[in-house]
Amino acid sequence: xxxxxxxxxxxxxxxxxxxxxxxxxxxxxxxxxxxxxxxxxxxxxxxxxxxxxxxxxxxxxxxxxxxxxxxxxxxxxxxxxxxxxxxxxxxxxxxxxxxxxxxxxxxxxxxxxxxxxxxxxxxxxxxxxxxxxxxxxxxxxxxxxxxxxxxxxxxxxxxxxxxxxxxxxxxxxxxxxxxxxxxxxxxxxxxxxxxxxxxxxxxxxxxxxxxxxxxxxxxxxxxxxxxxxxxxxxxxxxxxxxxxxxxxxxxxxxxxxxxxxxxxxxxxxxxxxxxxxxxxxxxxxxxxxxxxxxxxxxxxxxxxxxxxxxxxxxxxxxxxxxxxxxxxxxxxxxxxxxxxxxxxxxxxxxxxxxxxxxxxxxxxxxxxxxxxxxxxxxxxxxxxxxxxxxxxxxxxxxxxxxxxxxxxxxxxxxxxxxxxxxxxxxxxxxxxxx
Length: 434
Ligand code: DLL
Prior knowledge:
By secondary structure, the protein is of the alpha/beta class. It has helices at residues 6-9, 13-34, 36-44, 66-71, 105-121, 140-152, 164-174, 183-195, 217-227, 340-348, 379-382, 386-404, and strands at residues 87-91, 99-103, 129-132, 155-157, 178-181, 207-211, 230-237, 241-248, 255-257, 262-267, 281-287, 298-304, 306-307, 319-320, 331-333, 336-338, 353-365, 368-377, 409-413, 428-430. It has a 9-stranded mixed sheet with strand order 4-3-5-6-7-8-9-14-13. A 4-stranded mixed sheet has the order 19-18-17-20. Helix 2 packs across helix 3 and helix 10 (340-348) packs across helix 12. The site of 5'-O-[hydroxy(phenylacetyl)phosphoryl]adenosine (DLL) has 22 residues, from helix 6, strand 7, strand 8 and strand 12.
C-alpha cells in the first residue's frame, strides 16, 4: 500500500486550498459560537466569523496559546457540551497545570486516520506487527498509534512503556516488524538487546515510528544501526491531535503535514508575522475539522519551517522541517542561545560514551550562568585508566565549546547511573528557575 488516503495525500494545491478554506470558515464559526474564550478574543479585535471567507484570511485571526488553555482549565476551551465529548487527554509540559483536550468520536476517528496514514508512510500495511511502546493513558502516544494501527488493520501489540526486558522478549517472540516509541526509549531497547546478548539479526524489526521529543540526525543513525531498521519521525501534540499531525516519508526530507486536518503556518516568534517557505520560525496550527476542542492559530512553541515543493514520494501534502527544539527549551547561557539538540549532536559522535544518556544542569553562581553536562561512559571506556577518562572529558569539553560557542563543565558518570527514560526524557535541570 503506497498511500492510506490517496485522494487527500496527492490532492492538487488548488483542491487542497478549497477544502481548507471551506473548513476554516466552518471551524471559526463553530469555535466562536461554542467557546467563550475565543469569542472574547474575536470580539476584542472587532472580528466576526463572517469576515473569514477562506484560508487567505487566516492571518486576521487571533492566536491561541497554552496560557489560554491553562486559564480555562479543565474543560473551558471545549466548543461542545460534555455530552458530545467521548474522551479526554492531557499533557503536563515542563511547568504548571495540565493542558486538557476533549475529543468527540469523530475527532478520535480523524486522529486514527492520521496515525494510519503515518504508518503507511513508514511502509506499514496489514501484514505488519506494530509493537506500541508509547505510554498508554492521558499521554496521546500509546492510544494514538494503537488506534491508527487498528484502523490500518495491522496487528497491534499494546505493550505500553516500561519493563524493557519483557518488551524485548515480546518484540522477538511475536516477530514485531514495526516499533513505535520515543527515540530515547528506542535507544534503551537497542542497548537492552545488546546487553542481553541477542543478535539483532534474529529480530524481524524493519521500521521505527519515533517521536514525542526532539532527536538529532546522529541519534537517528545510531538507533537505525542498533535496531537494524529505518527510523521515521512522527510529530504531534495533544492540543492539536496526538501523533500523526505530521510524518516523515521514505524520502526523509521533512514531515508531511496532514494539512486537510491541521493548517500549518510558520511565524516569526517575536513579530508573529508569517514568514516565507523555508524560513525557520514558530509553528502555528489551526485544527480544520476538530469538533470537541478546535483551536485557531495555536502557537506550538516548536521550531520548524515549511516547504511546499514537490516530494518524490508523490504526496502533495506540505512538508515541515523536523522539530529540533522549542522556543521555550532554548537555554540562554551567558547570552548564548543553546538548544539541547546541539549538545546531543556533539555527544552522539563520541564512541566512548553512551551518547543518549546525558543530563544538563544549569545554575547561576554569583551573576554567572553555569552549565554542567553529565554524560554516561560506555562500559568499555569505564574500565580504562584515569588519564584516558580525563582525555575523553577534555575532548568533549573542547567539542562542546567549538559547537555551542559557550563553555560547559563535563562530568563523566559511571554506566547506568543516570535515570533511564521510558517516555519523554527530562534532560534539563535549570536551577535558575527553582
Ligand atoms: O508528544 C504526541 C506524540 C506522541 C507525538 C507520540 C509523537 C509520538 P505532547 O505530549 O502534547 O504530545 O507533546 C507535544 O512534543 O509540541 C513537541 O515539542 C514535542 N514533539 C512531539 N513530536 C516530536 C517530534 C506528543 N517528532 C510536544 N520531534 C510538541 C520533536 C516532538 N519534538
